[in-house]
Amino acid sequence: MYQFPKDLYVDVRIEETYNTYYFVKNGDVEADSSVNVTGAIIRVFDGNLWYTGSTNDIDGIQKEIDNLASLATPNPDILNHPTVAAYEVNKAAILTFTGDKDIRNISREQRTALVHHYIDSCVDDSIPEQKLYAASLQTYYRKKQFYSSKGAEIIQDFQSCNCGVFYTFAVNDIPVSGGKYYAGMTFDRLLGHEDEILAERDRYLDYARNAVDVTPGDYTCVLAPVVTAMFTHESFGHKSEADFMLNDKTLQEEWVMGKKVGNDKVSICDNGALINNGYVPYDDEGTKARETWLIKNGILTGRLHDAHSAVTLKEAPTGNSRAQSYLNTPIVRMTNTYMEAGTDNPEDMIKDIRDGIYVYNVNSGTGQSTFTMIPSLCYRIRDGKLCEPLRVNVLTGSVFKTLFDIDAVGTDFELFDTFSCGKNGQSAAVSAGGPTIRVKSLTAN
User: Fold this and answer.
1) What's this model's pTM, rounded to 2 decimal places?
2) Phi first, then psi: what are they for 362, rounded to 5°?
3) Which of 88, 214, 264, 308 has its CA at a distance of 20 to 30 angstroms from the CA of residue 357?
4) Residue 81 scores a pLDDT above 80
């Protein structure tokens, strides 16, 4: 497709994106937008330096290649450079979201009608504690092309959509925010959730009315699947991104394959081939997605790589080199990351606890060696039963201690398409998942 210069490595990424966003707060439409952008990034490598340029003039890509090549130093041995040698040469056309599945075929009228239907069905202005409601719908479509001087030719598409209704309640001047948020790869996944949204609204309203403050301390905690998903992503997924290790010899020595890092019940996987929010059949270096087990039965078995980190650590690329858009350089990122289901009954996990916490949902989390989670809704476990809603500001723990402290892993696995991930100033669509798990001890404040 392009005339690539001799004795240099070159790759070209072309992206066509279409985004829409509709947002209503307290009856006022605050956003109603659609944006269509096409652009490309061109990279030239001579073995010492990368030369990079971006353009929205697709017809001018060849000129951009030639301009960048004129800055580089030809290298007859470029194909033997370790990183270049690790780049795969794949040829594929994977267009999954065509015809009736294509989110671009959903009209503005259909999108706005669904939002207002949920408002009409799920918002009750007579609730005195309700101070705010908001509803939104967002769609995102992207078609990507990748070409390299080694011979890669890849065309693939991705799309997602999400819709939600959220509320803020206040009791005794204490605000509580919550609601229900749905996401999927096709528009039909957003339909028919009225009863679930109402149930969630009532759950958070009850929390606002009846929650009591936790007594700070260490508790046995049962984490609902969405909380397990957050823990898996923040606390272990990021630690598995190998670019963190490249300049840290101590971490490399401690983080060796085959090391026991958790309970035998714990297995964690990343797989970009799953058609979920982290769907990346080929990454932004042209590497094919694969199932990468990070932990298997408590043993460290893998990590996530781009070509550079794989070569540096003498491992294989995993298909995890991702960029936010054509304007960004690819970095190591998760895709669909989850803790595998176990064999334990979630209800039985609670029966054995005299005094503990059930974590129903979380607002956010962070994780390195010590992780934090900001719960949005918890319940007290007393004598094996769920009791009053509990106000917990933060849950903390040591990643490695917690992985060993997981003593029950449920059968109720879920993979959530409602996640996005920020790293180094870039955002990426990801999915995270897991079952209900029980942790012997987390610190609640």
Assistant:
1) 0.95
2) -135, 150
3) 264
4) yes
